Amino acid sequence: MSTTLRVFIVDDETLARERLKELLNDCAAELPLSLAGEAANGRDALESLTVTPADVVLVDIRMPQMDGIELARHLAHLSPPPAVIFTTAYDSYAIQAFDLHVVDYLLKPIRRTRLLEALQRVRPNQLTDAQLRQLQREPRQHLSIHERGKIVLVPLDEVLYLRAEQKYVTVRTSAQEYLSEESLTALEQEFAARFVRIHRNCLVAKAAIVAFERASDDAGSESHWVVSLTGLAERLAISRRQHSVVRELI
Description:
- By secondary structure, this protein is an alpha/beta fold.
- The chain has two domains: 5-135, Response regulator (Rossmann fold, 3-Layer(aba) Sandwich); 157-249, CATH 2.40.50.1020.
- It contains eight helices and 15 strands.
- It has helices spanning 14-27, 42-51, 68-75, 91-100, 112-120, 129-135, 184-190, 243-249, and strands spanning 5-10, 33-39, 56-60, 83-88, 104-107, 142-147, 150-155, 159-165, 168-173, 177-180, 195-199, 202-205, 209-215, 224-229, 235-237.
- It has a five-stranded parallel sheet with strand order 2-1-3-4-5, with helices on both faces.
- A hairpin with a 2-residue loop joins strand 8 and strand 9.
- InterPro entries: CheY-like_superfamily (IPR011006), LytR-like (IPR046947), LytTR_DNA-bd_dom (IPR007492), Sig_transdc_resp-reg_receiver (IPR001789).
- Keywords: Phosphoprotein.
């Protein structure tokens, strides 16, 4: 962490960002700090922080498109990850976070003394994904993928299937494939409402299913079930163990 604390602000409300900048300016008299940047949403914040790092990110929890908890989960993939301080007007979030003893919160309206106190005890981010998942009330809307030194956000709405292959999970959209280091089991637990397991190593998006068919290989072996997905020529095999799932979906 640099001698001067680099602070990044994420809040969808312009007035809230301006208020935080004023408070940071007031805090600068007692704590060396600088404004690393600001963003009105999580996607823009992640894109900026990939290029211009910060030591700490002040993140509003309630934001459209991507809430603050999901943003924090994506920020944890940065190297090194910034510390995160959440800002919120909702006490229920704060109570839950303090019970976990894992994160600092600033309740709105934010006071200078409270902001200074939070910044003075900032340390490198040690939040685990499991801890952040406990705070998150809704599943993520994006998967974060490491690609050529950057983090790419893949909307879950575009994902057709997730398939475990060796130590990675292939994330397939109609346009391309990505490689994720998340486990298939954890993804299945988080997105149970969105995906269904058709094989021990594969989950498919329920909304993308076009049809189930019986197929056999060229050798004329016993036929098996396959599933066709929207926008994908490839047909995916369904294991015998998952036949009951197929029947339920039909």
